[in-house]
Amino acid sequence: MIEKKTRLLQGNEACVEGxxxxxxxFFAGYPITxxxxxxxxxSLYLPRIGGKxxxxxxxxxxxxxxxxxxxxGHKAMTATSGPGFSLKQENLGFAIMAEVPCVIVNVMxxxxxxxxxxxxAQGDVMQARWGTHGDHPIIALAPYSVPDTFYTTIKAFNLxxxxxxxxxxxxxxxxxxMREKIEVPDHVDGIIDRKSPEKxxxxxxxxxxxPDQAPVLAKFGSGYRYHVTGLTHDFTGFPTTDPKQxxxxxxRLNNKIEMHKDDIIEAEELELDDAEIMVVAYxxxxxxxxxxxxxxREAGIKVGLLRLKTIWPFAEKHLKxxxxxxxxxxxxxQNQGQIVYEVERLIGCQAPVYAENRYDGELxxxxxxxxxxxxxxxxx
Amino acid sequence: MSKQIRLSGSGGQGMLLAGIILAExxxxxxxxxxQSQSYGPEARGGASKSEVIxxxxxxxxxxxxxxxxMLALTQEAYSKYAGDMSDDGILVIDESIQLSGQDKxxxxxxxxxxxxxxxxxxxxxxxxxxxxxxxxxxxxxxxxSLESAVLKRVPRGTEExxxxxxxxxxxxxxx
Lengths: 380, 175
Description:
By secondary structure, chain A is α/β, with parallel strands linked by helices. Chain A is built from 14 helices and 15 strands. In chain A, strands 2, 3, 4, 5, 6, 7, 8 and 13 form an eight-stranded mixed beta sheet that branches. A five-stranded mixed beta sheet of chain A has the order 10-12-11-14-15, sandwiched between helices. In chain A, strand 14 (328-333), helix 13 (339-347) and strand 15 form a beta-alpha-beta unit. In chain A, helix 4 runs parallel beside helix 5 (82-98) and helix 11 (285-298) packs across helix 14 (366-379). Chain A is globular. The model of chain A has no long low-confidence stretch (mean pLDDT 97). Chain B is an alpha/beta fold. Chain B has a single domain (2-172), classed as Pyruvate-ferredoxin Oxidoreductase, domain 3 (3-Layer(aba) Sandwich). Chain B is 38% helix and 24% strand. Chain B is built from six helices and six strands, in the order βαβββαββαααα. Chain B has a six-stranded mixed beta sheet, with helices on both faces. In chain B, a hairpin with a 6-residue loop joins strand 2 (32-38) and strand 3 (45-55). The longest helix of chain B is centred in the N-terminal third of the chain and has 14 residues, at 15-28. Chain B starts with a strand and ends with a helix. The model of chain B has no long low-confidence stretch (mean pLDDT 94). Chains A and B meet through strand 9 and helix 11 of A and helix 1 and strand 2 of B.
């Protein structure tokens, strides 16, 4: 029985399995390496379950149609890579402002521009945070294995529906394309579905949020009429410039993520209990780091790993927990240094923070991190 | 037990499928397995490699750093990818390949491509012949695990050809 469920899947395939387990019924996008398998498989599976797959004319339209599919009541997603993620930014901002639940997968490759289509990178973590204009909150998750991609994708849909917001999944080329053992369960508990309005269509105010600060957007076609806009709007969804209403909306957009940080943020703490050095890493590089800390431990160095699984909002609590305990922090990333600045900002005054980077398209080797651990340990 | 395996040839020789089959056979034997590949934008030609790690332990770093077992089907793949072999590793190459003389590991030079083309009548099964040879030479998994993984993956109607191909490869390694 177990053997049947144990499979060898790519990260991209596990993402699709996770999306299906979460209840996805709509995908719109424009295939791009290294995310293509996600579109390819959903074009096969979605029609079988009565869902819709649309290959749009470009990346921008892919994001726009994803928003439309969601407003019609579908669990909706799109998948892309760096160049497409750039093009999607304007509509991503629209989805944040209009509070449309959806999932955007960005399988990161080397950039800038078309860069390295088939090689790995983690260069889009700041773009995920601030790529679209204006003040805004964002949720971005970064899985590190094939099984983790399955569960992270389910979590992304759940958070999107719960907080009525877009959620970004930052896969990287290594995780997207590698094949690994995964036990795909027949059934997953805790799937969160879109709420329906409690009020009648006459009394319904789409952007009047409940105590959790998230609105309940009625499905288009269900008898509720309302206005959706990227302009700053009031409870009715129509534009407003009233400073009070503007501030209320801006605060609520931010609060609905801020007040639920404990529910959203996930990080794994490996061997940190007695650690004198903390390595911070995420995605594929956190696998190199896990390998490196094991070797360092064998050499008698007390080192641990904080593996970020939620990138945004940032795992401030997890990081600060060890700020006074450790003598140094190493942030290993497949870019020229992005998350390292966030770590420096938060705990840089308590412990020195070092960046360890690789950005030539090849996955960082454990030795690179191990050598840095040894060097930092000698000088600590 | 943890074995790093690299399969290389030219694009279109089925190295990716061979890697997937090997990893699946590893999983079917109750081990952990990770498969990855590197490729350029071109779909055919050039040197292509597929890497597999099969281990009793969990696998953190998913790429091969020092192959314990390596296959090369073309001269270009051999020159490009065989340089970082483990000294006590096993290198299985097609007999058409000229060795550099630098290899310290054990080398099996066998007629993989000729066997596929002339004995089995289909050059396309060279990857399966190679899998049979690798399994015999390294014992990384059992022949039975390989056989069931192959039969699970290959298109219907080609089972007998592929079964013969791995058997042929298995017999190319003496002993």
